[in-house]
Amino acid sequence: MDVQQPIAILDSGVGGLTVAKEIMRQLPHEKIVYFGDTARTPYGTRAADEVVQFTREIVEYLAQYDPKMIVIACNTATAFALEDIKKHVNVPVVGVIHPGARAAIGRTNTGIIGVIGTDGTIKSGAYELALKQLNPHIHVISKACPTFVPLVERGNFRSDETFDTVSAALGSLRDYPMDCMILGCTHYPFLAETIGEVMGPEVVLISSAEETAREISTILYEQDKRANIETTPIHQFFCSGQPAMFRVIAKQWLGKQIELTPVVWQVSQMG
Amino acid sequence: MDVQQPIAILDSGVGGLTVAKEIMRQLPHEKIVYFGDTARTPYGTRAADEVVQFTREIVEYLAQYDPKMIVIACNTATAFALEDIKKHVNVPVVGVIHPGARAAIGRTNTGIIGVIGTDGTIKSGAYELALKQLNPHIHVISKACPTFVPLVERGNFRSDETFDTVSAALGSLRDYPMDCMILGCTHYPFLAETIGEVMGPEVVLISSAEETAREISTILYEQDKRANIETTPIHQFFCSGQPAMFRVIAKQWLGKQIELTPVVWQVSQMG
């Protein structure tokens, strides 16, 4: 195990950048290789076996960088493909669902937890399962918000349209006495300010991104695989679609230019 | 690996009950065997090699219960003995320092983090090391509070004496623009309300207890060692000193009677 190996992050698009940003903040010495499958985003409305296939392809692609850990920074891909990928690689594979679930269990006082995510994530019941495996008495209120990812992938984080879209999707959740809500899609932290305005200050928003980075830190420490603190890593980003919007969003979110390489998938891989 | 094996928790006294309570809350199916070394508390003013020796003795004692994980729920023992114990057992050993450090790194916005603990913990520099290994730009303000553990071990959580003691110890820390403070001793969550009153609402208090339970959850999941959710565990508690006060504090803190067995150490083990 070479501790200078990178952490591989994959997502359907730009959402995993929220996880990447938190890794950069919490673990500034770790090198990241990131793959955003922008050509095939969103994953949230795709069939499970298609998401598994896409996730496998990206993991295979990133294997050339010999990662010490694979982070499935997409809730839909975590819901459908985490167990499959774990069986096929010999490094730790971290998804974004259990970290959010564990954080919510740690934070809630009322035992009533909200979860928002894509259609695929919510229909999979993965959060409810993860929460109830921890504590069967937890009450879970779930809501699919299929209108959120397209906003983020267009870079539309703060606007009247954003507020109206978020209000329309979440208005009905305000009737429940939840005290925390899991942002069960890595795209949603881009919209966190607006979501917070709509839900009100009494609902703590749990970011899978922040919590996943924290758990990556735990696992790297537990397995003695942390990067050398002398390292100033140079991260690498890849996307399968047009790089222009990815570059704009990454600059805006990460606050710096990134080294981005567009990847052309073979036709056979286009699902 | 039998997932019905218990989690072993050890502390110098009752402080580790804060970790036990959080494990019961976050992981209600996990069985706990707990050892409080009340005959030899406090550890905070003892020499490092003495703390290592005591910790080894307790780990040996708890080995008869075949634990699947060992939790050193004492910051002083974590600072001095974690690496030693890790070398001598073949199950995961979790201390309470890194979980608090990782949580603080996740929460801080100003990058200025307060740490309070026993003399031993603060002088060891273990928190500063853990924080700076994560991010060398973090500014750490540390303060030893040797007057806190005796209050807790007497069951004196809320009183004028408690407020005066906490104010006297922490007053000087209020001059620093820290935005979070690590309760770097597992006894301190018993005093959290008073500490919060003294520090003010702008300082988020990080409980090593809550954060350690969270990390235990992460590691058990990552290693596929979680208890069966059909289980309703019966916890076992041991203490090396008089059981009366331990029983009172445990009842008050955990909200229920516990199965407590006093353990008589051999004279050769009394350090």
From TrEMBL, chains A, B:
Pathway entry: Cell wall biogenesis; peptidoglycan biosynthesis
Keywords: Cell shape, Cell wall biogenesis/degradation, Isomerase, Peptidoglycan synthesis
UniProt keyword annotation of Isomerase present: yes
Residues binding substrate: 11-12, 43-44, 75-76, 186-187
Similarity annotation: Belongs to the aspartate/glutamate racemases family.
Family matches, as NCBIfam families: glut_race (TIGR00067), PRK00865.1-3 (NF002035)
Protein name: Glutamate racemase
Organism: Paenibacillus terricola
Gene name of the encoded protein: racE
